[in-house]
Amino acid sequence: MRNIDETSSKLDPFRDFHGEASSAAFDCHGIARKPYSPIVDVIRSCSKSDLGQRQKRLNHAVEELGLQFSDVTSSRSSANPWRLDLFPLSLSATEWQRISSGVVQRALAFNAYAQDLYSEQNILRERVIPHDLALRDPAFLRQLSGIEVPYGEYSQFGAFDLVDAGEGDWRVVEHHMGAPFGLSHVLQNRRILSQVFPELYERVDVAPVAGFSTYLLEMLRAQSSRANPHILLLTSGQPGQAYFEEAFIARHMGISIAQPSDLLVRESCVFLKTIRGLEPVDVIYRRVESAALDPIAVPNANAFGLPGLINAWRQGNVAIVNAPGSGVADNRALLRYSDRIIRQYRHESPILRSVETFHLSDVDQRDYVAEHAAQLVLKPMQDHDMLWQICGGRPGQSMASMERLAKRHPEYFVAQSIPDPAMLPQFKDGEFTAKGGYLRVYYILGKEPIVLPGGMVRQKVTGHRTRRLTIATDGLKDVWVPDSVVKDSAPKRLPTAMGERFSISSRIAESLYWAGRYLERAENTSRQFHTLERLRWDQMAHAEQRTYWPLLQAVAAATGQSDVTKRKRPPRDTLPFSKSLLLDANKGASVRACIGHARNCLEKVREVISPECREVLEDITLYLNVEAKRVVTRARLTELCEHIVSELARFNGTAERTMPHDDTWQFLRIGIFFERAVGALAVLKVAMPRLIEAYHEVDEESADLTALLRLLGSLDAYRREFRSRAYVDRICSLILQGKHVPSSVNFCLRNLDYAISTLSHGEDRALGGDLRQQIRVLLEVLAHFPLAQSPMGEVDWLDAGEVQPKSMHHTADFVGEAFSGLAEQVEALHGRLEDIFFSHQDVFAREPTLFAMD
């Protein structure tokens, strides 16, 4: 049996490629081609089980990183179509030099086309291309005509999709010069594969790709004359396919993501609404369609842009990359005339030719397409919202729907004859099979154009219903280029000045604040539930249950379970309540719901959260999703609570260690400490009045008061402070006034005050001054709270037998009103936080015309 296993493990994993003429990696004799020889040797040295394990590690790494094209709120099981393959695409030096030169040539030519189309339109005057092809393009915005774009570079950063028609004959399939997608996946693919399969890289000097984001940042900085320009990445604000990409790039370049609602145009200048007010913006890296940038310049009922942005750009007060209108270079109908366009503007022969493309507006071409429909791929001329508005369709149409739309609106559709791509090995289900792929190559223009040494291979989808080359893929591949080819051609850059500190936007601050609140609420609920479960409710006598019932109601009140707080008698079994409190995603304050809300908040500001923090939160989310499907028992719920408390402590520790302690960190802390203070008061205002009603001064320990201290995470602190059994007034003193007790309201308010004080710097010393004064007033209120008058640590408190608890002098109604009033005062801090940092209503109140439209 052992010999059989050894023999099978040594079988050639590429035996199916022997005699495969269309393979890019092997010749017709099954011998690996030179660029692939080291890769094939390494893979052949691995057993089948080893390769399977490595592929699982790749899949797990991709899942952890959230490499996805879908809504951030979707479940990961259905939201992650990406799959990174073990076998990379490897290009020879000669092959890459041709691709690189062809990419730069085409980028320069089509930039010149965009400049010409928005100015003299010589290409139309000379009838190089049909007039209607350019002028009917939905991406062509006449409103932008006559605007001077620096150096004529409409698309400073773009990409092209290529297909290997065989023997290194690379053809251009599509342009992505408006808002190219996928750079983040290129960088992540290289990092993940090199970690999971480092042996592949030991025998080959592969050109690095990590520095490309730095070149992109330098290009963006060069768009402004300022030494340290304020750069933003502008996104639509809608969760969708490009979110991971945008967050990844923004984090790598150290810039913020902004939505149109985060910005304001005043006096033809663009400003970001930050926690410190308005800050001017110098450069915008746009990730939205040109037509959606400015609803005034380009009226569009389906777009929510920034009014006045195009005028600010026209005046030269802000740079926009890529320039508005650059999407005209993505017109697929232009591919039929790409050779003419290159000759028109570059006076050169094309290095890379386009695949055969037919524009259906031409009768002869339309007839040809109808006769050869089975061999052609039907596509819209642009992936543009305006096109779908005109045609009445939507992205992702089925093939039958696309054909119907093309018959009604042939002028907006093309058909392409895309060669079957050269086959590459793909590792799937434990075997290597042949699969074609499309190469996306990225460039950056400027004084020294740069082509990313590599790119991204998206493997062909079998039986994809739209038959279009879209973002759909059956897997990704890393792309290798010999380091020797690009080592000496890398652009030289002088050191840049240290970056200026810019404030975070109000939207980012608010998202972090709420994430902190939700995480703290989940931790409180888990810990408090665990405390209650340790009392073994199901084994208590009825009288004992009535004793602890106020504590259970207090926890229910703190989590919004009003139906429980209204009950006069305790239930026989609390298991349904416990399950709902922990795992019911529809209960707004349940642990699972809170974790989900926190995850959504942090996903929206992913660029400022460390990957390590996100990984911990993803682990918690997956764990809760699995637990929600299992059979629920008390023991299982107790274990779940312990795990959640432990994991949230890991998140807090990871955040403290991996996140810069700047404004982002402080707003996360503000949310945590505010929620902790509110949560403690929510428990006390329900529990204390009911405990006082049932309170009987006895010599033995008051079990319900001890349990209350456990609920608030302060039993050990109480023992160290008072060294006595539990009394109501001492508990109040500890939880309200304890300066060194993490669960006390005093501790939370002082940490809030400190966090807010760090937000002021330079000329902003008064930032949040009114709010800090409100906190100081609250600290005075705590110091004179009726149930906690005696200073903590007084000697007479140590003699429990001689001093009557001060709480006995107050009725339950009085105590309830006192705690409710205190809770309202603390909760009022939220309104002030929102007015000052998030909505800026305090600024509107003081200067109502400050943000008025010009």
UniProtKB/TrEMBL annotation:
Q: Where is the Circularly permuted ATP-grasp type domain?
A: 88-458
From which domain of life does this come? Bacteria
Q: Where is the DUF403 domain?
A: 505-783
The protein, known as: Circularly permuted type 2 ATP-grasp protein
What is the species listed in this Swiss-Prot or TrEMBL entry? Coraliomargarita algicola
